[in-house]
Design goal:
single chain, alpha/beta, 5-stranded mixed sheet, 5 strands
């Protein structure tokens, strides 16, 4: 199995941890010299924080591990294309390469909606590899949101039944 796929599988395991907590299943790992130096998954609901994205949490852990804000030779693996906020943090931390799975047509800023990571107007750019295990990464998200919609639909029916029985 190709190295990118091996590391993406690890990011997928992180995404599954998020899903088990009711979080959107997005996982991230950061690798330096073939060593995983950080792992994280989405914690926005748990922390009630708009910034608790998997990438930001992993970047913070990697910086703490290295005792440096510069992650110049690191590779970030994430199951969903980074958003504008995460792409900004990737650039600011000088991550060398980003590998992602599923594309994000509504907010992906690593090539789909726009591409901040390779825009040479910034003082740093990151190499981008997209679509690694995209089906598996995409299925996690699709199945999660289908489940959420079913749950909301079920709650809606219960509320409708309770409302009509009160009259």
């Amino acid at each position: 199995m190709e190295k990118d796929q091996i590391y993406m599988k690890m990011a997928i395991e992180e995404a599954k941890k998020a899903e088990s907590m009711g979080e959107v299943p997005i996982g991230c790992i950061i690798v330096l010299n073939d060593q995983v130096i950080a792992r994280a998954h989405n914690l926005r609901e748990t922390k009630q924080s708009a910034t608790a994205h998997a990438e930001l949490l992993a970047i913070e852990k990697a910086c703490n591990f290295l005792e440096s804000w510069r992650l110049e030779d690191a590779v970030l693996y994430v199951t969903l294309e980074p958003c504008a906020m995460c792409s900004g943090a990737i650039l600011l931390s000088r991550i060398k390469r980003v590998v992602y799975g599923a594309f994000d047509p509504k907010g992906g800023c690593a090539g789909t909606f726009m591409n901040l990571l390779t825009d040479d107007r910034f003082n740093h750019t990151s190499e981008v590899t997209s679509g690694v295990l995209k089906e598996e990464c995409g299925e996690l998200l699709t199945n999660f949101f289908k489940k959420i919609r079913r749950q909301k639909k079920g709650k809606s029916k219960i509320m409708d039944e309770n409302t009509t029985s009160n009259f």
